[in-house]
Amino acid sequence: MLMATERLILRRFRATDAATLAEYRSDPEVARYQSWDAPFPLAKAETAVRNFAASSPDQPGWFQYAIEHTAERVLIGDVAVRLHDNLRQAEIGFTLATAYQKMGYATEAVSAVLDRLFRLQGLHRVMGECDARNTASAALLERLGFTREGLLRQQTFIKGEWTDDLLFGILAPEWLARDPG
């Protein structure tokens, strides 16, 4: 399950990751478009890490990959995958600590996970959804070859307001045919 890229290691979460998870999830800018609120208490992070570690990337449900910076040996974010019951479709999401944003790490990490999903697990389709105001996440999905498939107006009530959601999808033939360069 361990994956290595040029600058990152994607791995299962460990108990020692809880403090760092709490730290980056407590950043209001990181939490802005996410389902959790900042601050993200350490006790909540410890529970989350236990749950992440107990899940399986090959079974239906959510699995969270820890993104570790290889050179610094530090947790810098995570990639979430919700594998559907049919084991042929999934939803993907991602979170990166502010200090590591805008450096290509999210693209590198999500690309590695998509490679695993399509090449190793044989998925047919992966979708992504984000708050329509989250232009950085939308741009990342488009860079990776996702097609914008729709806009759900006032779809989600979160943090006291109704938000529009953008829907993206990519099919196995599209991912497998792309030029990674």
UniProtKB/TrEMBL annotation:
EC nos: 2.-.-.-
Top class in the EC scheme: transferase
Range of residues in the leader sequence: none
Gene Ontology molecular function: transferase activity
InterPro entries membership: Acyl_CoA_acyltransferase, GNAT_dom, N-acetyltransferase
Native source species: Actinoplanes oblitus
Domain N-acetyltransferase per the UniProt entry, residue ranges: 8-173
Superkingdom of origin organism: Bacteria
Annotated keywords: Transferase
Protein name according to UniProt: GNAT family protein
Gene3D superfamilies: 3.40.630.30
Pfam families: Acetyltransf_3
